[in-house]
Protein 1
Amino acid sequence: MSARSFARDLGVLTCVAAAACSTGHKPEADPARVAALMKTVDKNTPGPGDVPDCTPEQMIGGATLTQVTVLKLAEVPATPGFEREDWLNPPELDSPAARELIDPNIDETTKRRAAYELLSAPFILVYRIDLVDAPMAVGIKDLRRGVIGMRAIRYDPKGKCECVKVLTFQQSLDKSDWAIVKSNLTVMDPKVAKALRDDLHDVLLKNVAAFGRPKNR
């Protein structure tokens, strides 16, 4: 065989291999394994002082989920309360694979691929709301600035808690002052309460975005 014909044949084989790879079967996993893992994650919620603080580096590179999504994946009903409402558990905090698994309109193959992605993550970071002290935002006429307490909890791939980052943040001062001025009725105006919830949603996302930044930056 000449060098030219060998090179031609090698090129053909390379193209065939590349085509096979591009149409190859993507890895999948049983979503039931994700449900079992999330049950373990929920069960292993740490108490105060149970685990060390997370460093900024420990919160970058894993799969992220809100506590509400953990419960949905685990098929465990959420305890009623403001801590589990959507405005404090926004989908922006969930990894795409997690959103696909809880979407009833997603096909089974996509869900199996999403399950594999979640199960292959180096760690899981769960955003858990522990405290909602924001009376005006929830429709109670108590004219004071709202406060939210949350934790980012890191779990290893088997659901064991490794570390925690605690955060407390307040309603934006200008939005809180605006709401107090607007609240001249005997009850909270639903539109004002909604504006405060939207503000807390935005403040939450800004604080989460800063989780991975070292304090000296």
Note: Residues 26-209 form one domain.
Protein 2
Amino acid sequence: MRKFLGNKKGLSAMQDAILFMVMVSISGAILLPAFTNDSLTKSQMEREKDEMADEALLVLLATTEDEFNYVLGKTIIEEAFGGLTVDLSKSKQFGEDILNWITGRTEYHKSYGELIAECLACQIMLPIGDKNVKANILTKNFEEQLEKNISQRLKIILGEKYAFNFSARWYPIMGIPFGGEICIGSPPPNNAYVAQTWITIPYVPEIEISGEKEILTPEILKSEIEKNEFYKNTIGLLDTFPKSDEEWKELERNLTENITNLMYGILFTGLGDMKSILEIALDMIFESLEKMLKKTVKDFEQTVGEPIMGIMDILFKKIGETIFQQLGEKPPETESMEEYVEKLIEAIKNYFLNGVVKNVNQLLRPLHDSMENMIKEMVRYILDLIKSGVEKINEIKEQIFDWTINRIRITKAEVRLSIWEV
């Protein structure tokens, strides 16, 4: 009897345990939809806000302005007006009318994607000291007006519920802040919803080979790299397998030296007969500026009479004097307006090509460490490939090409929009 009761108690305890597990399971089944639904709802909201950021960015880039107005060289012209016997800048309305008449520009039916690309492509942003300096003194008002319009347009698209940060960056050499940059809005928080895409820069990168101009393609770049002595030295170093730690260190030093010279040649200082990517980008920028300035002068010659054109000659030369002074050069003595403009363009171009490109190592000193780290990382990867067998030489060659080509983005600019609730 005692044994039977013991079994009965054990059976009862087991039944209680089973009942408890069933009740827990039922409770879980009842509550699970609530927990799951909450998780799914949150995930859906996150996805919708990401999609909202994507859509807002695409709408902005595709939106077309019937008329986009700006003044070419506005700051310089105002300085020139201030230096005249009669200060034209004192009367605000009269001064603005004169400014718009002389160098006011209007872009018709262009999308924001096109306007942003044009703005980035003519800034000539350079890393000097601890600052990124936008050196194009003629297109500052273009940038200011564009930033103002983008801000207004995004407020319409997003409404009052969202704050935003918009940025656009054109770095012809990835990781090197040379080129152009626009940034609008306060810094985004960590929980912002981000949309990112690429736009095309309105330039065709050309190089001159054997007296003929050709579009710079990955195939042409590979061909020019293979002719370079630093590249040949690099490939030559791969034929031997070091036998001691000291020999491995020596190989690492030699690879680092040759690859550094190769990369700096490609990107900054030139590669044999081929100009550097920096020089190619500057050439494209100045070609665009030259067309812009010559068109301004030509438009005036066609629309105003000879007496007024004489007054305009005085104003243009006064503007030119201001620019020459900023460049540290003496204005040319010439009566021809066309020749004066050509000399001015030549002086601006020479200032950058001689003053910037020739001293690129000094100007880009703040970025030396980041370039050095990238090259060291590449060398370590090459050493690992060598240790795995010298039959990997062809793969190493392709890695050098890919590493270089992936850092050249002359024709692409990144645009990014971050939004968050306020």
Note: The first helix runs from residue 2 to 62.
